[in-house]
Amino acid sequence: xxxxxxxxxxxxxxxxxxxxxxxxxxxxxxxxxxxxxxxxxxxxxxxxxxxxxxxxxxxxxxxxxxxxxxxxxxxxxxxxxxxxxxxxxxxxxxxxxxxxxxxxxxxxxxxxxxxxxxxxxxxxxxxxxxxxxxx
Length: 135
Known about the structure:
Blueprint: H1 3-19, H2 22-28, E1 29-36, E2 42-43, H3 45-53, E3 57-71, E4 76-89, E5 92-107, E6 110-121
Parallel strand pairs: 1-6
Antiparallel strand pairs: 1-2, 3-4, 4-5, 5-6
Helix pairs in contact: 1-2
């Protein structure tokens, strides 16, 4: 997979999230997904699909500001995405900037998300420039 292919998969994922397209999400997400939400809770694929199917999570805006891709061998791509989001969670509206880290891996001939994390970016951090934390 080339980087534009990963960008295409990320666009497919974003469209599926905006449209609550459970079939597309099912295709793009690994059965063994491990995903950490902004509250620190670990979610599975079943949890994620149920949230979309039941309308617990609804996105009305998902506007990428920065997308960085890093290939880790032939079968893994690491994605860092900064995006402006709006929608509702369990009936409570939200909007703001989020930072996703996702791991895409080749599983049985298909690229799927196998892991990830999302964090809310505090409003005091308004620059999309990367920061050096001494790592």
